[in-house]
Amino acid sequence: MKKLLRIGIFDSGAGGLTVVKSILEHRFFDEIVYYGDTARVPYGTKDPATITRYALEALEFFKNFDLDLLVTACNSVSAHALPEMRANADFPVYGVIDPGIRALRNSGLDPSARILILGTRATVQSGRYQQGIEAAGYSNIEAVSPSLFVPVVEEGLFEGPVLKSVMEHYFKDIETPDAVILGCTHFPLIADAIRDYFPNAPLMIHSGEAIAEHLQEEGYTPHRVEKSDLKIFASENPDNLKAIAKKWLQQ
Ligand code: DGL
User: Fold this and answer.
1) Which of 184, 205, 211, 230 is catalytic?
2) What kind of architecture, by CATH, is found in domain 97-206?
3) What's the pLDDT tens digit per position in 179-201?
């Protein structure tokens, strides 16, 4: 009998659905179990010890599902809690930061390219992207925490004057980048607006696509199933999260 493959995807809230979208499109897995800690979002403004405690609590939830692997879609968790999660799980736990850095390296962008990292305060302060990108040979790096992007995206404002003025607030003094790391689950939803803001349409690195590429490298086969079954759980108001999933994922 064909083995059933089940992946868990964890995020602080709804944003990780952007990673679910990429994983769904690749049809690697029979089942996707998504858990959003909607009662305690945002994580990106919390300190590393709190983020790690929340992540370990989420891990206990996932232990009920006989998972083959777990992906933490949340960059803030990927930045701070991966070693502890891995030490406490009996299945592989993947973060999104290393796959994002690999995607940048695989892009073939010149080492002189200007790289703009966008992430939560927790992610940027961890220095994980900065160190990894530097180790990949790039030295022209800037990191910014556009915290207001998160509520703007939660409001569904993926374009228009509000988003434009928030982008202006964070980007007005920034040198035009050649690549932008969308180092937060929410940012892929405004990737087009960010790309259009800059005159040279920089390369956009998206966690969902990066982790999907990485899972292929790890031996998972795309288009293995007709359709993945998606189960959604939340620490608060799961119906709201399901409604967002319906809208964002169109399913
Ligand atoms: N999921 C978070 C991340 O990718 C963004 C939202 C939050 O701050 O919890 O870092």
Assistant:
1) 184
2) 3-Layer(aba) Sandwich (3.40)
3) 999 999 999 999 999 999 999 99
